[in-house]
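User: My collaborator sent over this chain with a note saying "see what the structure looks like." That's all I know about it. Can you take a look?
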Amino acid sequence: MKHTGDYFRNSTVARLEPLVMYIDMNSYFASCEQQRHPELRGKPLGVLTYDGPNAAVIAASVEAKRMGVKTGMRLGDCRVLCPDMITITTHPAWYRQIHVDIMNILRSYCDDVIPKSIDEAVCNFHSYTLVYKDLTSLAYQIKADIAAKYDYLKCSIGIAPNSFLAKVGTELQKPDGLVIITPDNIDEHLAKMKLQDLPGIASANEQRLRKSGINSPLEMRHSSAAVLRKVFGGVVGEYWHRRLNFGEVDMYNRAENRTMSATRTLSRRQSQDRQQLESMLIALCTRLEQRMVKGGLFCKEVTFAIRYRDGTKWEAAVKMPDPVQDANELRGYIQERIAHFESGRSPGCLFNPGTTNLTVVVQSFVKDSVMQYSLFDNRLKKDVLRKVVYEIKDMYDQKNIVRRGNELFSPFVMKDAIGFGSVKDMIVKDGQVKNKHLLEDDEAPGEPRKIVIRRREPPPLPKDADEVYYEYAGPDYNDVDNYHTSD
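Assistant: Without extra context I'll predict from the sequence alone. Here is the result:
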């Protein structure tokens, strides 16, 4: 059943039928690795962005979570809770491919599908009441379809009258859960929850609520809109009242990006080398160029930010006279601001060894279909040539096959990142992923990913030696016997 209207819209009218389904993949990145490497199944696994003793675990397997490991914990703290935890560095292209496959499964049942993140999506079945009589059986069928494609992946599904409560349903039963929230049972579910169990309620919001005498989600639901407006300081409180009383305020689908950003955290070794910092800026601008070319967009504003180890930050925003898509032009505007700030100060005071993070954000987009060019410059030719270059990359299914001169100094300085905000770039249209480069591996030659298993009984070491790990050589990895950690 196809439709042409936009049924995914917010509404002030409460809808009481549970016709919204939220799908949340369980322990997604870790499960993706266990799917790819069956020998890791059933074992505690932590996924790291880089391999080192100070790395943070960005995802933990179900087995590791049972031992107390949580997302965001430092590796050393995880080892205390789970000494036998295996670690593996990320494989973003693999996670994105599975995301696309799962979205295709969902879209086979419903046109109204919004990816909320790389591991979450919401489906609206309000226009399918004559097609599906029982969403419970449909939810089990979706689980079966995912298992048929990827047998180790599990998901929790929530069904409710709006997307927020459906999301709450996914949190109530993990892993592999299925919870239906209706007007008849919502109070029963909320009575078992704490304020911070609600998505979007953290410690600051909890304190605001408690100061107003609201100590539980159930009390929050039965508070008036006026009280919640006072607690949250305006319309946000109105939104919370609607969420908990079956109104829809979170259902929108901005098919077009309002902003695009590229950010990376730097290792100590990278921050010591100014050339590495310069190369990272080039890489960030190039990544945004790629996304804008694929989206048919030009930007009129760019913001650049640097963070340092002492917690300070430097930021500059530029409004450009003409819409820009080219990475060199973006970099040029940023370097002008850097040079202006450093004039009269010590050269290199911004790109210094204390740098921990670089971020570039572009916004105020103009579509390529409405771009206006001057008769007296050759920007049109440059823009057409840039598009052709990316088409050549597409032809050979390799985004790194064509590189410009300014990318050759350190071509693999920017490790591929998962990109939670890039799910819009993976929307499938006419059978094609919008930005297929996101599905291609972007690893530097000679730098394979690593699976590291800690030795149960490490051999004797000198007192000043680092901790030793046994490195498992899986099908995607180099065969290295021992790995010595270092900062």
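A starting point for your reply to your collaborator: The chain has three domains: 1-183+445-487, 190-245, 259-414.
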